[in-house]
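Entry type: protein chain
Record version: 2
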Amino acid sequence: MICVVGNRTREALIRSQRITGLTAGVIAELVAEIGPLWHERHQAVLTSRPRRRAVGAGAKHKLVFVDRLLATLVHLRHGATHDVLACWFGVDRSTITRAIGEVRPLLAERGCTVAPGLRLRSLAEVIDYLGASGQTGIIDGTEVRVRRPAAGRKDREKFISGKNKQNAVKSMVVTDAAGRLLFCSPAEPASCADITHARKLSLVKLLADGPAVEILADAGYQGLGAQTGGRVVTPPHRKFKKNPPEWYEEMHERQRKAHSSRRIRVEHGIGHLKNWRSLARHHGRREHMSDIIQAVAGLLSHQQAATLASGTRT
């Protein structure tokens, strides 16, 4: 089989941000950071089982690590199938599947980059960061459509979204007031309510025990404000269900719009996430969605931090 991706093609892939979603500098940092981790895990797998050959003997990899990383980035960015990537890189489909399965968890473990050398990997770290910097956080849930579970499978209905009436998984996204990604939670079945998902992530406990932080949220999180001492701010409740006075309607609409304008940045952050086609609709295994969401969030936040840092220097 002839290898399609040569040095010139590889360089073109790295230079074009439209293909991978990342600049050449960010890709170089990923290679330097993740390459040793991938090699270490690969060697650990080789030495953990009985062998008839010495470590390092036998057939060599047809895909070097840079190509494995690029295949994973193209898959996440454009949703390219493994068959297409196999033809492109001149290897078997199983090689691409194995490469993506090895690189994707490493990308997911990196967390979200908020500044060079500073990453947030858990919701507790996000709350501490917001408290230390005095910033306001914004939370919202986002859904990704997935394949419907097979007929007769247990808990088949739990993936049906109560809002969209489609099979999906849900993740809670946290951004700062400017819309920069700080955290994406692991995926939950879409039947889980936003407020239930936040409680499962221990948001109430973290806000009660942590620093004083203001968190903006939509109506799906109403009720958390009372449980967190007002730290979670949601749209105002309607006091009049029927025949409200005209002055109240105007006041309520003004308050609702003011709150919406403050939290709109989280929608922009989610929009940047959905630009990666793997999060527009997922046709693969649902078990991989947590790694996919967190890998894309880590890559996008890394690129945002690098862009901001380069703009500050100039």
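Comment: The mean pLDDT is 88.
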